[in-house]
Structures
1.
Amino acid sequence: MKRRFEIVVSLKAGLLDPEGKTIQDSLPTMGWMNVSDVRVGKHVELTVDAANEEEATTLAQDVAQRLLSNPVIEEFRILSAEDVR
Amino acid sequence: MKRRFEIVVSLKAGLLDPEGKTIQDSLPTMGWMNVSDVRVGKHVELTVDAANEEEATTLAQDVAQRLLSNPVIEEFRILSAEDVR
Amino acid sequence: MTPRVAVVTFPGSNDDRDALRAVRMFGGEAIPVWHRDRDLHGAEAVLLPGGFSYGDYLRTGAIARFAPVMEAVRDHAATGRPVLGVCNGFQILCEAGLLPGALIRNRGLAFICRRVHVRVETSRTPFTSGIEVGEVLEVPIKHGEGQFVADGETLARIGDEGLVVFRYCSPRGEITDHANPNGSTNNIAGLRNESGNVVGLMPHPEHAVDPDVGPVGGQPLFESLLSSVLAPAS
Amino acid sequence: MRDEPLHRALGLTDEEYWAVEERLGRQPNRAELAMYAAMWSEHCSYKSSKAHLRSLPTQGPDVLVGPGENAGVVDVGDGLACVFKMESHSHPSAIEPFQGAATGVGGIVRDVLSVGARPVALLDPLRFGPLDEAHNRWLLGGVVAGIGQYGNSIGVPTVGGEVKFAPCHTANPTVNVMCIGFAPRDALVRARAEGIGNLFVLIGAHTGRDGIGGVSVLASRTLDESSHESRPSVQIGDPFYEKLLIEACLKMIEAGLLVGLQDLGGAGITCALSESAARADVGADLDLGAVPLRDRSMEDFEILTSESQERMLAIVTPENMPAVEAVCERWGLSSAVIGRVTGDGQVRARLRGQVVAEVPARSLADEAPEYTRPMQAPSYLEELHEDDPTFSEVPVSVADAFRLVLGAPNVASKRWVFEQYDSLVQGNTIAGPGAPAAVIRIEGSLKAVAVSTDGNGRYGYLDPFLGGAHAVAEAARNVACTGARPVAVTNCLNFGDPERPEVMWSFAETIRGMARACEALSTPVTGGNVSFYNETEDSAIYPTAVVGMIGILEDYRLMPRPAFQPSHVVYLLGETFPELGGTEYADVVLGKVSGRPPGLDLEREVALQSLLGEAARVDVLTSAQDCSDGGLAVALAESAMFGETGFAVTVPGDLPAHVALFSESASRAVVSVAPEKADAFEELARSHRVAFTRLGETGGPRMVFDDLFESTVAEARDLYEGSLPGLLDVRREAG
Ligand SMILES: Nc1ncnc2c1ncn2[C@@H]1O[C@H](COP(=O)(O)OP(=O)(O)O)[C@@H](O)[C@H]1O
Ligand SMILES: [Mg+2]
């Protein structure tokens, strides 16, 4: 079976997010006054082909953990998984 | 009221995604054979302070449309919105 | 009179000093302009330099295009006067909608600093007016996000209206994939707008004027610019 | 069971804790203990190395500022000064290569900035494990991308460096970064808090929970499993903010607004305040409440020791404060008055009026414990020395050996790495990556500064004294090949655990060797950095001294390029001895890292270098290439490839062919000379008492090595350029 996963990789809370901060700082000059706490992360979609749902999820988690993120500074979460053919 | 939005910005379907392709290419060398169609986009979280829900959503959409995404190559969708204090 | 060329400094601009120096080398008066300025100090031409405005965060040029000075650049362009965007400047012009398409990460993902060759595809710009079509120039590139892309319709328009100004090519001028450093569609290295006064390119002509430190393929661009500023084509 | 006392958790020994109590005459509180732990850590206090570093020569006619300041400074004439310093960021890079290396660049750039100089060039000596391991490809890819992203974004060209590989670096990559800056002599600033009543102004990024205990935890202990806990102390760099910081600080210096300037690195505010105060023999009153925070819930000790990046501490007179604020506002930087200079020599931190820490500035900055740790020569050396590869029989043909050596990762082209760096920005790169030394023009003059970083871990492993001496000699030789006069040295000393007598012995020997060479070459040491604990349970890195040599070139138009031109005469300068110990040949062909490294006769070295300088000055040299890794064969091939011009040479002497071609005897160079200048050149060589051998001539597409073998420039280029990309073909592992 094939499943499509959506994975979000983001900097650990507490770590500086220069990209988010720079966007944040630029908003007022663009006329957006009441937007705050901007954080930027990566959004990765991928399709996993596995025997069953558990296997697919384990594999997606494995990829997210070992390839898509570095636990030293990042954390990931799997947003959703849906069947695709 | 304050609302926290999760926004995903991704390359339009037609366009080749260099980062996604690079990750895709590296998967087999790391022993992942049955992962496919990797696409990489941005995940932006931000908090909007507005009079009510509609206003907050309109503002978030405006930021996503005019700043966070470039309509020439990207599309965006608002993943989630929840109240925060 | 000495032609006046404005060079805009955004937070994170790096090649602004090189651009100012190049303008002076060719007898122009180089006018530094700050991103918060609302006018171009009466310059006849404006150059948006390379670098990493706002750290290239979000998208290259995405934040810089909102700078106050960009209104002045827009007006300047609208009146048909010369606007040149180099590297990050090119990216800003695309984000601002003054040039078609967009620039995304290089096909190999990595930043590339290298001498390349580009073929001049049109003389109908203030920056190439003195150059024969087909001439090959050696210039350096140094960018991580220089892959030019656009949707089919836009590409068709670019083709029909002859908006391509430079293409990556071999030293002998052949347009090959091997000569394409970043995967740009149709080897596009530089573009112009419909009226030809706005030009953007990824290679760095300002780093190709002094034989002591590099190739000299940028010289004819500055020569063309300064002479066409003196004698505006009607 | 009772858990260990706080001071041990912070990395202080019991003796060190007692010393703190003695200094204070009372028990330190939590915040004070954290301050001492950070300042007395190996990384900040040099407690194990100071005693040895003292023996390095630091004086010379060109030296304006020696060790003790944030960076060294030499006089380059015409009222201009060259500022330079090298630092290590190996430990963070080992666990987060991209950010670890990126923040390393940020740190060294701020060191140069804090002396008042505009950063004009970066170099990056790197060491990794073999590339057949995915982990090492991930480290290399991440480190190079990180250095590139940071250096490219701040608009400082990366013009040189090194990339070398050895199994001992698999668990412990070595990441050193060197920065050079230029400044008008009279605009130089010091990191001194002069003037009681003056203000301490924190400029730049807000302070967050970054690298709390970073220096003590990461760089002052070996990476074991506990490095998992220390992981959050890796930080995220913001090159964009650093760029604003550079421009703003230079503006303030230009406008004469600053009394002093100090970067914030290891130990954060504590280090910056106590060092700048101690240097001026004053005190500092600090209001923690005034420090702009990223995270309001931070505790006193966290604010005091946070290592948040992209911050500078300026010392400003009250009158100038408005002007300083204006500059910061223009560049979009935050600036906050966080304290005042006092006369009592105390660093005093208050929160809402309450004193939360009060300790003597000197006790933090200057009075850290100093150790002369036990030393002992490693037992394995004797055995290694006996196994001299010079006399092992040759398993392959000389032609195959040539291909193996030329394609070896240590020798092969590093284009894959340096094309990821902007080497052109600022427009003064006369010679960039690929040249024996980088050459940076001094704008508006014919003068230029030449710079090279060198260090050979194998030599250091087999004989640390020679390792240290060769590092200096080779760096100077590379600089001399551009016609420049070598003037001064910075360095990074990368070693294992100093608490092991073998490591400490190697360290002392290395410094002895460096000192000897620096004296002979009249190139004093103006600064550097020591990185210990580069080891894991099973492996320590080679004793690796990396030297950054600065040279002055009076007229860059006379610089020989390392490239052959047709119909020139090729010479080998210097003598070749049967020395294959520790060579690239022994490693890749025989699989041996053994024997003794090549000897070093410093008189010969001095003679060679002065000849190279003189020959360039009188314009008789067309090309010059130093003869080191891979020996004569590689030096010839490189000159041929860079000039796309072949050669035909006779292999000199009565040495066996493979020895003549691959020996790494020191004090040699391959040069080419126009035929009509040959006599003048030979005359010059004789007058300098430098042995020379006329090898043959340049021209054509072929490289002919006597009747031994021949190859073509094209074939050599494929090997040389193809090696790294080939090994990295499957390098795609992301961070
Ligand atoms: N290997 C070395 N050789 C000479 N001087 C050194 C060496 N290591 C450190 N130093 C000097 O000791 C002082 C403290 O070094 P360091 O803590 O790295 O400075 P900073 O904290 O400004 O980076 C500096 O002046 C540095 O130049
Ligand atoms: Mg410092």
2.
Amino acid sequence: MAEVALVEAVTMALAWEMAHDDTVVVFGEDVGINGGVFRATAGLQEKFGKERVPDTPLAENMIAGMSVGMAAQGLKPVAEIQFMGFIYPVVDQMISHAGRMRTRTRGRLTCPMVLRAPYGGGIHAPEHHSESTEALFAHMPGIRVVIPSSPGRAYGLLLASIRDPDPVVFLEPKRIYRSYKEEVEDDGEELPLDMIYTLRDGTDITLVAWGAMIKETLEAGEELERQGVSAEVIDVATIYPLDMEGILESVERTGRCVIVHEAPRHCGVGAEIAAELAEKAFMHLLAPVRRVTGFDTVMPLFRMEKQYMPSTKRIVKTVLDVMAES
Amino acid sequence: MAEVALVEAVTMALAWEMAHDDTVVVFGEDVGINGGVFRATAGLQEKFGKERVPDTPLAENMIAGMSVGMAAQGLKPVAEIQFMGFIYPVVDQMISHAGRMRTRTRGRLTCPMVLRAPYGGGIHAPEHHSESTEALFAHMPGIRVVIPSSPGRAYGLLLASIRDPDPVVFLEPKRIYRSYKEEVEDDGEELPLDMIYTLRDGTDITLVAWGAMIKETLEAGEELERQGVSAEVIDVATIYPLDMEGILESVERTGRCVIVHEAPRHCGVGAEIAAELAEKAFMHLLAPVRRVTGFDTVMPLFRMEKQYMPSTKRIVKTVLDVMAES
Amino acid sequence: MSVTATFKIDYHQFLDENGEAHSDLPGGKLPAFADNPADLVPLYRLMVLTRLFDAKAIALQRTGKLGTYASSLGHEATHVGIGAAMREEDCLAPMYREYGAQFYRGVKMSDVLLYWGGDERGNDFSVPSHDFSWCVPIATQCLHAAGAAVAFKYLRQPRVAVTVVGDGGTSEGQFYEAMNLAGAWKLPVVFVVSNNQWAISVPRSAQSAAQTLAQKAIAAGIPGVQVDGNDLIAVRWAMEEALERARKGDGPSMIEALTYRLSDHTTADDATRYRENAEVEEARRKEPLSRTRKFLEAQGVWDAKQQEALEAECAKQVDAAVAEYENTPVQAPEAIFDYMFANMPESLKQQRDQHVKEMNDG
Amino acid sequence: MSVTATFKIDYHQFLDENGEAHSDLPGGKLPAFADNPADLVPLYRLMVLTRLFDAKAIALQRTGKLGTYASSLGHEATHVGIGAAMREEDCLAPMYREYGAQFYRGVKMSDVLLYWGGDERGNDFSVPSHDFSWCVPIATQCLHAAGAAVAFKYLRQPRVAVTVVGDGGTSEGQFYEAMNLAGAWKLPVVFVVSNNQWAISVPRSAQSAAQTLAQKAIAAGIPGVQVDGNDLIAVRWAMEEALERARKGDGPSMIEALTYRLSDHTTADDATRYRENAEVEEARRKEPLSRTRKFLEAQGVWDAKQQEALEAECAKQVDAAVAEYENTPVQAPEAIFDYMFANMPESLKQQRDQHVKEMNDG
Ligand SMILES: Cc1ncc(C[n+]2csc(CCOP(=O)(O)OP(=O)(O)O)c2C)c(N)n1
Ligand SMILES: Cc1ncc(C[n+]2csc(CCOP(=O)(O)OP(=O)(O)O)c2C)c(N)n1
Ligand SMILES: [Mg+2]
Ligand SMILES: [Mg+2]
């Protein structure tokens, strides 16, 4: 069993699935000899050849559109978009075709594709390199949006995403690509999609987060423990479809919820979760559901990006406010 | 004072502003001699010439990108996207540039552009012609999203949108383009953006809607009156930024809220409103906030589209459920 | 200064407007597939069927029995020429009016009616089961064809993807991106530009300063050629050349077929608003059916009696398709949900169950 | 069969790798702007400044004082050639490494440092106040230039928009859409393809089957030309031709400048992973500075002493810019919010006020 970082778990899952399924093809800008700008595809071209790991011309909409065509005709494309800030040209093909192919043709043609992209801020990157716009994809019918927050979940969820017969947007929290390693068995075992992962048990409040923000949220859980508040921490993992049963079960127990995400607040995925709670946990809520999120601004250039990112401190403070309100 | 339908009010506003501001240029696919596929630009090319009302080559991303360039260099582009189903190629230019130009350059360059598009279902149109994806734009920092629901508001809000120094996505509910006429004075008077419009006073529950769904929501208000429930009806009008003060004021009074929209439920704008209420109206809510929305599916082709669209009946039933819960 | 690259665009026509073979043919004769003119009769028959179907569909729309419909009037040679040149195992990624090509490949008239009648089942062709369905977002289908070609090449299948895009569609970046990819990767794909001179109300001249649309292939470094799109033989010939090239592994090509949209853009359009009748009349003189018929008659393989019989037979077939369409009951409420995912999410199941319940409760 | 259109792509070079004037010049001599070689000295000085600045910026990044930085090493002739040909009132829509062009137009070295140092104020050039700032999403700037050109044409201003895009960027649909619009509307805009042979790790040959990138102009029906991008005179000459054409109302054109990215893609890249040192060495022999210097020395307008003085002077200027950069305090917390809208929404005000409060509370 190997100790791997999140980005290495991605590579490991890609390699496993390529070795076991001939129809899996990995491609994108600079994924070949360069192994991807974050090295997520490092070594794959060497191992599987240029035809299975080709560099594409530089065009993201093209990458999405060709994936749709490949997926409809018997392949399992796993395409990389270099940064989420450059993913927007794919919106058209994803919403107009990827998410529709099955229902449009009553199941005659399908679209088993995965679009991978590193996302999120906090790595001192240039303009457009720190985006968190998962909510755009979560609003598209027919498309799963999956975000791992640990090496193990990166491995298992990516395998499940590739094997899923429908399109998946798989967003990788690049801030924690290499922040720590954990043991991950390279056994081809997938982890279930459409399901939350409870990372910390608690009784007073439920903290809901995903991606890199899991780090701050778990830290907040520790800090709150010290201050006498028992926080449950949930990794949503699949952003659409949401496992609302799982979240509700927790919130009904704790009676309180704070949702944490890096994306802008307005119409972020946190809004959907809070709205569902407002409807379905109404009788159980002891305090308002609050969100700790990015601002409704453009992510500032990196000199000030830390101010934009939800901090452990902001999470703790919000939780204490919520505790005080009930 | 003329009796005009909503689409005619759009034309009237465009003509007024073109007559009074030389920098306003109207363009898009088929907007010229054809006057737009819905006739929203009818007569403008004749009146203002080909240079001010040109047909563009067929490319939506191009329309958005050239608008950014025009707006940054002294013009006020008012571009039409033929249907919201074809708006997705603009996402890149809007999120990467239109919404960023001012903050990126610390105000040196700005982007006073308007992107108009008819949106919504219910007119028996072909595939891709019935989309309601306002939530995608509402999640983009720096961009206003405005939706009128009457001829008068179409006129006043479009004028305000063109005059606003920042980018506006102006979505026109095509199902009610010609469903009725009302008197609109062609006096160049704008209506305020960033503000709700209360269309019906009530004391028991607040119904929040926008666009064409205002019709069913008002009908539901009438029907509920007959059943002894006094419903306030709010037209949100500006989808981002939301006038949450206005909505909160009402919900704090009524203690109940149902939100209605045609777009898919998951991560729709209704989620943001419900989330805000869950946080800020917590102490005032007598019942869960419910949403009556489109399904999390692709809008079915038109033989079944009526089933998809929120009906007056579904709204009434939901309101009665909410009343029963408190 | 030196010249670093030179290019030319050829134009091909075999049959002129009167159905007479062009004097200046390559090798002095028609392509092999036209050696025996009787072999062209089935193609002509399909052109006639397509046109009669088209008229019927418009009539259905006018009487409220069909939704908006995109006519193929005037495009029959281009469309049937494409269909006839392709093999069954090839894959078509059409836009929204290539019925002639699709009928040749097995799509049923009732499929077309269902689709424009607002029923997804129109896209569920039993044959050709691997073809893409109609594609409304302009030019997006070009990338699907390129992707399909990636699959064929990767899977070592001797198949070719064919896509059709309009003159208007050549202004979309996706069209160019698809050709560029196809060129860079030498993909087995053929791009057909159906240049019918109009994109709704926008004339070809307003789309681009390029003298020909075929020259857009130069940007991708792939062969581009212009043909008379109302000449069945020219279209089929150019298609066969391109398909052969692709099948041999020599990569993609592009064909600009010059035709004319004799109808309104769709039944929702009124072309008299923006174009001169004289232009339409002029184009009508070049339309494909009469010239094909004249050619076949001159070759002695067709006559007025056969024409009459054909028209009667086509009318029957069309009526049968209409009956099939009209007798297709609406889908069950579940159908809105059931094809969204192979593994339906819990939340969607809940929406479905509630909806079905509400529909049943009336 | 007939030939319906023919095209050719010219290649221009005035100074060869050794700084010697090409034997086969149009009209037998250099362009007018080079009549007096001394006039080229300021351009050369700027090329040297740009290169020294570049080395300093990389050093700053290596020592943690700057973020990721995109080097312009090897592109100086292309960039300064562009800048020198433009008028003040023209408008540049750059990508992210055209410092030479931007310095010529008035952008300060400290602006560049601020931008890559993560501070928006780097985009707030006081001069040229109408130019676009750096553009990271590849090829999107092409449409801004086309839009700017629409504005200039509409406002009857004799101004031209200029945009620069990379060889990789020519694969993006936006590049093509912008050229196509410019052609169709005869816009005063010049597209420069800075073909430095690499798009990060992807070589030019993998981007497109097109033999030249200049021929992509043919798709848009606009003039396209290829020049030696390491030849300052060729770049400036082609730019002046194109600008003149545009200013006269004769529409857009495209210039492919052949150069080479001698550096890593950015400081975040390691080019040794994917390209051979031999190739880089070969390219280094053709780099622009030494050939310009040799030419000027041969013309008697430059010598080693001047060079030495220049380098000292540049070092001082660069140091001053670095000091200015390093002494720029971080913006106030409000700055995250204050430029989002002219009329700030209430909800954003609340977010701002809360954030400012939290920052003040520590
Ligand atoms: C991306 C996109 N934009 C706009 C439309 C609306 N629209 C439908 S057909 C059409 C014109 C297409 O013209 P052309 O490509 O020449 O094809 P034709 O209809 O003439 O066969 C337009 C603008 C669309 N379907 N898709
Ligand atoms: C739309 C988009 N996709 C991907 C990237 C990431 N990226 C940055 S530079 C680059 C390569 C650009 O190559 P080229 O256009 O040749 O310009 P060069 O950097 O060589 O000057 C890539 C892929 C980006 N910035 N924008
Ligand atoms: Mg056309
Ligand atoms: Mg390059």
